[in-house]
Design goal:
Elements: E1 2-3, E2 12-15, E3 18-28, E4 36-43, E5 49-55, E6 59-60, E7 65-75, E8 79-84, E9 90-94, E10 110-116, E11 119-124, E12 128-135, E13 149-154, E14 159-163, E15 171-175, E16 180-185
Length: about 190
């Protein structure tokens, strides 16, 4: 149990039997009565958002989660396979529950995984990731003045719109939250 006054951003709380990550908290002291905490949380399992208003002296249940760095190994029919960077333990993550993350996982790269009750419940994808362009159409010289873009495919199958000057086998930086091209990366 944790007092509401001690909750900070990044704290994991257990609400409705699910672990939630605190993304914002604000304390308010009304003219009369006790101080309250307004807490905004995001479900680690499904991404749903929950807002609570709780007196600061009240206690809430904190979720016992373990955040580990693990190397992405491979995917089979049902699971992504990770290896813990320190203990070399193997972890399986259900593909169906993490469908939107499959295009951002690159074999050999390390990612933060969140473990709750012995089960991996989330994979933390970095804010920006470098990809190699696997498929790209050629463009006609002079088309760049319009600021036009074209779709390309990365080595993981992710489709991104990029400027026309980007060629196959070049590396690009992609914002994983918006799925947008950021810049070309020099090798």
């Amino acid at each position: 149990m944790i007092r509401c006054a001690d909750i900070t951003k990044g704290t994991c709380l257990l609400q409705k039997g699910q672990p939630y990550l605190v993304v914002d908290r604000e304390f308010h002291t009304p003219g009369k009565g006790t101080a309250i905490a307004r807490i905004k949380m995001k479900s680690i399992r499904d991404g749903s958002v929950l807002s609570l208003t709780i007196p600061t002296q009240q206690e809430v249940e904190d979720a016992q989660v373990d955040i580990r760095m693990a190397q992405y190994q491979y995917a089979d029919q049902d699971n992504f396979h990770f290896m813990d960077n320190e203990t070399f333990d193997q972890h399986e993550v259900n593909i169906e529950e993490n469908q939107e993350k499959k295009f951002y996982l690159q074999e050999g790269n390390s990612y933060q995984i969140i473990i709750h009750e012995g089960k991996v419940i989330d994979i933390q994808i970095p804010y920006k990731v470098v990809f190699t362009v696997a498929e790209s159409e050629n463009y006609i010289k002079g088309d760049t003045a319009t600021g036009a873009t074209k779709p390309i495919k990365t080595e993981t199958g992710l489709t991104v719109r990029v400027p026309l000057f980007i060629k196959q086998d070049e590396k690009i930086l992609v914002n994983t939250e918006t799925n947008e091209y950021v810049e070309r990366v020099n090798s």
